[in-house]
Automatic annotation (TrEMBL):
PANTHER family: MITOCHONDRIA-EATING PROTEIN, MITOCHONDRIA-EATING PROTEIN-RELATED. The gene is Spata18. GO terms for biological process: mitochondrial protein catabolic process; mitophagy by internal vacuole formation. The lineage of its organism: Eukaryota, Metazoa, Chordata, Craniata, Vertebrata. It comes from Horornis vulcanius. Residues 16-207 form the Mitochondria-eating protein C-terminal domain. GO terms for molecular function: lipid binding. This is Mitochondria-eating protein.
Length: 209
């Protein structure tokens, strides 16, 4: 494993971080809308469609985090045998190795896990004949993005929202069809992107009285 200087590691991390944030914004602006169009062929209720997409994002990040930690443990055991630096240097080497070897991530398994979670979610009251594989590509992009975000120092993650929570203007935008005087969140459209508890990119919610 090539040893990089701390300054070089910071530059690489900052560049990777900027690219991943831009990719997160693109998925929100483009891929999310494409997924809505696919789901609308089976579900007429736009609120339910948006709820499905929101749950898909959360489940994709959860599944990718789990897959990442399994991969990290395996890679650390391999690299530790020939590593000469301290624990911090080993941690950086492991993250860089995983970031450069994306084939370590079994994205197909991750996608199927997310689809199963969508099928079993009690919050999604959908027609029995709906196949969530219609948004397979959308989920795949989210899983790959979430996995890559775990290789950052510190990692990026999405917020978890609850219906009925107090609207937080620092974390969310209101959707265009919201009641702008309502203080509570009716449901979530897109989660906020977080870094060490701080909001990096705001999410979107619907507020109603």
């Amino acid at each position: 494993v090539k040893i990089c200087s701390p300054a070089q590691c910071r530059r690489v991390n900052a560049s990777r971080r900027a690219c991943l944030i831009a990719r997160f914004n693109f998925i929100y602006a483009k891929d999310r809308l494409d997924a809505e169009i696919r789901l609308k062929k089976f579900i007429c209720d736009i609120e339910m469609v948006q709820r499905i997409i929101y749950v898909a994002v959360l489940e994709s990040f959860r599944a990718a985090r789990k897959a990442f930690w399994k991969t990290k443990i395996s890679v650390k055991q391999i690299l530790a045998a020939g590593h000469c630096g301290g624990p911090a240097a080993l941690e950086v080497a492991v993250l860089n190795y995983i970031a450069c070897h994306k084939e370590l991530f079994d994205v197909c398994c991750c996608v199927q896990e997310v689809v199963c979670c969508l099928n079993m979610s009690p919050k999604l009251l959908c027609p029995t004949d709906i196949d969530f594989n219609v948004i397979n590509c959308f989920i795949r992009e989210l899983c790959c993005l979430a996995f890559s975000m775990q290789t950052l120092i510190p990692p990026l993650d999405v917020s978890f929202g609850i219906d009925g929570e107090l609207f937080n203007r620092n974390m969310y935008y209101r959707s265009c069809d919201s009641d702008f005087t309502a203080p509570f969140v009716a449901y979530h459209i897109w989660p906020a992107l977080m870094e060490n508890g701080c909001v990096i990119v705001k999410g979107e919610v619907v507020t109603r009285k």
